[in-house]
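User: Fold this one for me? It's histidine kinase.
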Amino acid sequence: MGLNASYAHLADYYISKNPGLAIDYAKKMYRVAIQISSPVDRLQALQKLIKLSSPIATKQYFETYQELADSLQTARNAAKNQFALIRYETEKNKADFLKAKAENIQKQKDILLRNIGIGTLVLFLILGYFLYQRRQKNLRQEKEIEVKKTELKYVKKIHDRVANRVYQVMSEVENTPEIDKSDLADKLDVIYKISRDLSYDSKDINNEESFSIELSKMLYSYASAKTNIEIEGGGEKLWEHVRVEAKAEVFYILQELMTNMKKHSGADSVTINFKYENNRITVLYLDNGKGMELLTPKNGLRNTETRIESISGRITFDTKLNSGLKVEFSFPTL
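Assistant: Here's what I get for histidine kinase.
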C-alpha cells in the first residue's frame, strides 16, 4: 500500500514536469494496485493514464476504466455493507470523466455494451462449465461413499450373522461330546440361509421361538468343561415390550462378547445379568479372563458401540490386563 501511494504521488508530481515519467509511475501504480487487489487504486491509476496517454491508448484505458468502474459499482450494490464514501467518489469521478469526454460517449457506449455482452456470455459459459464439473465430481463422490457404505454394511452383516454364528456352532461341536447330526445340520442350514439372504435387511432372529430361550441357547452354547456360563434374570417377561430391532441388536452384542471371550480372554467364568428398571433394560457382562491393557477393538467390539447407539442406548467397557472384562449396556424399552 505504501509503494502504491508513493507511485501515485510521483505520478502527480511529474504530470507537468515530465509527462513521460508520470505515465511510467502511473503504470507502476496500476500494476501494484492489481497485486494488492485494490480496485479503487486501479481506478485512480487509470484516470492518470487516461489524462496522460495518447488518444489510442486513452481509448483502451477508458474501456478498462469503464468496465472496472461498472464492476466495482455492481459489487458494492450487491454487498450488504456498502461504503457510501467510496461509492460517492467513484460516481463523482465517473461523472467528471464522462463530462470531459462527452464527444466519445456514444461510440464508447456501443463498444462497452458489446464487450459487456461478450464478457457476460463468456463468464456464464465458464461458470456453467465449472458448475457442471463440480456437480459431476460430487456425484462421483456420492457414488463412492454409497459403495463404501454398502461394502461396510455387508462386511458387518457377514461378521455378525455368519462369522459369529459359525463360531457359535464350532463351540457347540467342540464342547458337546455327542452331538445330534440332524440338529447340527439344521444349524448349518440356518447359517446357509442367512449367508444366502444377506442382501435383505431382515434380522435372523427366530420369531417362532421365544427370544429369551433363543438368547439362552446362544449364550450357553459357549459353555464348556473349562468355561462356566451363568445367566441372571432375562426371562421372557423381560422382553415382552421390547422392539424386535432392539432384541436383535442385544442378541448380536452378546454374541460378539461371547465370541470375543471364547477366542481371546481365556475366561473360565462368565456372568450375564439382566435387569429392568424405569423403562430401561440394563445388561451386565462379567468374565474373569485376561482382559485388555488398552481397549482398542479392531472390529467386533467396536460394532457393539454402533449397535447400542442404533437403539438409543449406551455402553461402557471396564477392563485391565489380567483383571477380566466388565461390559455394561442399557437401552430404553419404549
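One thing worth pointing out: The mean pLDDT is 82.
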